[in-house]
Amino acid sequence: MKDMTTSASITHMTLTLPEELRTREPLEIGGVVCDPPVILAPMAAVTNPPFRLICREMGAGMVVTEMVSARSLVNEPVKQRWRLDIREDEHPVCVQLFGGDPDEMARAAALVEDVGADMVDINMGCPMKKVVQSGYGAALLKDPGKVERMVKAMTDAVDIPVTVKMRAGWEDTNACDVARAVENGGGAAVTIHGRTRQDMFEGLPDLDIIATLKETVAIPVIGNGDVRDVQSAREMLMKTSCDAVMVARGCMGYPWIFRELAAAFSGRPIPGEPDIEERRRVMFLHLDLYMETYGLRKTMLEIRKHLLWYFKGTPGERELKRRFSSFVDVSSVRGAIEAAIEACLCTDEVVTFPRGLKKHPNRRQAEKKCA
């Protein structure tokens, strides 16, 4: 069988985490244990039940849902309940809400608690224009007072932990002011993406602001931004002293990052890159979970992007695109996966599989999902 590589150097396979990181107690957030301290980030149009289940199987210590509109949940609780589809095998699981009215967010948090979520998170990081123009997402960073009122309203309404995922700031870095507001409101933890809203997804995350925030508050701090492998996770943990790392684009098309990080935290040998049989197994599983969750029509449309991410930059990506029009049932999709694998095996090229996405996926699609 043809040898294939990945887009990242394999030198991270020889890395280990320092003993103080490997031997520390599991992270607890308001009584919820996150072990290992590696969390799947909330991502619109990505972190649905099929993908969350795969990431938990791979070793993620906690998974977070796509962001859910608090207003939609409160106004149409029966119609919107499908957005709170939580499976037994994915606990601990956190539901992320977005909104701008403290009372509305509190009422939505109560609905989240009722369906069995272990935690509820407030989105204060989404930079999409459609979201921030409504005063939601990263726009909340401009008003720490409102942040404190919102967190307080939600913690008063539920018994499960309330957390916040935020950016370093709107234009300037006011993360510490916002984090203090979260803590004062009774928040159990804060996740910080080391970029401002103005940065969007460009440039490098600011690890210094994560480190400063960690020194500012007593609640757990979770670091987020460009965690793609053991090496980048180690760098974030060592430079910021954060309590956990959150993985976003680094797992898109490469959920195996979680088994690597889980091994690193436990002191076990870091597993090598998945072979072609393992890649096939996970893609078939992803397809089957999609069918079980959404049925034929939605699966035939949405599974495409996930498969493209698994094969991005390889001859298999081209073969998949050629076959999209033939997606009519599970058999046709499996056949396309097999053809894509064959395209990777039979080429004279050096096949380089990706380790997650380097750029944010289609923003228009993600923003549409925020509606």
Structure notes:
The chain is of the alpha/beta class and 371 residues long. The protein has 2 domains: 19-272, Alpha-Beta Barrel (TIM Barrel), CATH 3.20.20; 276-352, Non-ribosomal Peptide Synthetase Peptidyl Carrier Protein, Chain A, CATH 1.10.1200. It has 14 helices and 13 strands. The strands form 3 sheets. The protein has an 8-stranded parallel β-barrel, surrounded by 7 helices. A hairpin with a 2-residue loop joins strand 2 and strand 3 (32-34). The chain is globular. Residues 6-13 and 363-371 have low confidence and may be disordered.
Concise description?
The protein has 371 residues and is α/β, with parallel strands linked by helices. The chain folds into 2 domains: 19-272, Alpha-Beta Barrel (TIM Barrel), CATH 3.20.20.70; 276-352, Non-ribosomal Peptide Synthetase Peptidyl Carrier Protein, Chain A (Orthogonal Bundle). It has helices at residues 19-22, 49-58, 70-75, 102-114, 129-132, 144-157, 175-184, 207-216, 230-240, 257-266, 276-311, 315-323, 330-346, 363-369; strands spanning 5-6, 27-29, 32-34, 38-40, 62-64, 68-69, 93-98, 119-124, 162-167, 189-193, 221-224, 244-247, 352-353.
CATH-scheme architecture of the largest domain: Alpha-Beta Barrel
Strand content: 5-15%
Number of helices: 14
Average pLDDT, to the nearest integer?
A: 90
CATH topology of the largest domain: TIM Barrel
The CATH homologous superfamily of the largest domain is named: Aldolase class I
In whole angstroms, the N-to-C terminal distance is: 46 Å
Order of helices and strands: EHEEEHEEHEHEHHEHEHEHEHHHHEH
Radius of gyration: 20 Å
How many beta-strand runs? 13
Q: What oligomeric state best describes the polypeptide chains here?
A: single chain
Query: How many separate structural domains?
Result: 2
